[in-house]
Amino acid sequence: MHFAAQKMSVLVILLLTLPAVAQFPDKFTNLQVLPKDIPKADLQSTMRGFAFALDVRCPYCHVQRPGQGFDYAADDLDTKKTARVMLQMVATINRDYVGKIGKASPIQVECVTCHRGLTQPQPLRALLIEAADKQGVDAAINMYRDLRKRYYGTGQYDFGETPLNQLAEFLLAKGRNKDAVTVMELNFASNSPQSVWAYHMLAMSHQANGEIEKAKSDYRKVVELHPDDTWAKGQLESLSAPK
Ligand code: HEC
Ligand code: HEC
User: Fold this and answer.
1) Per-domain residue ranges for the chain?
2) Is the C-beta atom of 32 inside 6 A of ligand 1?
3) Distances in whole angstroms, Cα of residue 210 to Cα of each of 204, 214, 239
4) Domain covering 124-240: architecture
5) What is the pLDDT tens value at each position of the chain, 243 positions in all?
6) Whose CA is nearest to atom 36 of ligand 2?
7) Pocket of ligand 2 contains residue 181 by CB under 6 Å
8) pTM metric for this prediction
């Protein structure tokens, strides 16, 4: 079979076997935000957009009655009510704010702009800092490892150097110097960052934790990457000066 035709028939089989698509009603009785006369195809693609944006399926927002299937019009679930508030919020953002920045066709905010395949759209930095604050640095590191295993490469979270640099900054500001070293060493082991920022954070963590030889070699790396770094040079001089 021709490749495109084969792909097409796979798609057709997929659509035919998706029960939610087969049961999609023709009449809508409880639309409060979307236009009441919205064409079926538009409502269908809006609903599929919700599901993709949050990485959920229809039952996340719609109740199923035993023996009768979905009751799409019912408002039993809080998630559906929240989604309605979100719909109004997104419309307001686009109309009253993005629409007024003076561009002919500004980028529209969508559910996925914030949600990125998550029901709770929190950035990784916030999750890690909260875990480190409330449960300790090991909890934050386990969380980083678990989320990375589960989500790496699909865009829900940034697993690059930045959130770990930010976590180390938070820990240093709290005087949790050993924890900052642990986090920065994990960052280097997982991400091999080559940025001045990461080497600065590694150097400052080692220095604050009393690991002076390591701090000096980190500052040397900063100067290698960024020869004009007067601050790193100053740190190197003062760390090398006889006490
Ligand atoms: C994130 C929550 C959410 C998800 C997921 C979701 N929906 Fe909805 N759905 C809503 C909301 C909110 C409304 C009501 C919109 C309004 O009031 O204008 C609605 C309305 C509907 C309606 C119209 C019901 C009526 O009679 O008023 C249908 C049909 C529907 N959804 C089908 C689906 C299907 C099929 C899926 C899965 C592909 C789905 N929805 C996924 C939130 C969701
Ligand atoms: C500007 C960012 C933003 C946009 C855009 C956005 N949301 Fe949200 N949404 C949030 C935040 C933040 C929360 C979490 C609030 C909380 O639980 O503290 C949330 C929560 C939710 C929840 C509840 C999740 C739960 O588990 O309790 C649903 C459902 C939801 N959003 C649906 C949508 C839908 C559907 C759209 C598009 C119409 C949308 N959101 C657009 C920021 C956004």
Assistant:
1) 23-115, 124-240
2) yes
3) 10, 9, 11
4) Alpha Horseshoe (1.25)
5) 455 556 666 665 555 555 544 589 999 999 999 999 999 999 999 999 999 999 999 999 999 999 989 999 999 999 999 999 999 999 999 999 999 999 999 999 999 999 999 999 999 999 999 999 999 999 999 999 999 999 999 999 999 999 999 999 999 999 999 999 999 999 999 999 999 999 999 999 999 999 999 999 999 999 999 999 999 999 999 999 886
6) 111
7) no
8) 0.88
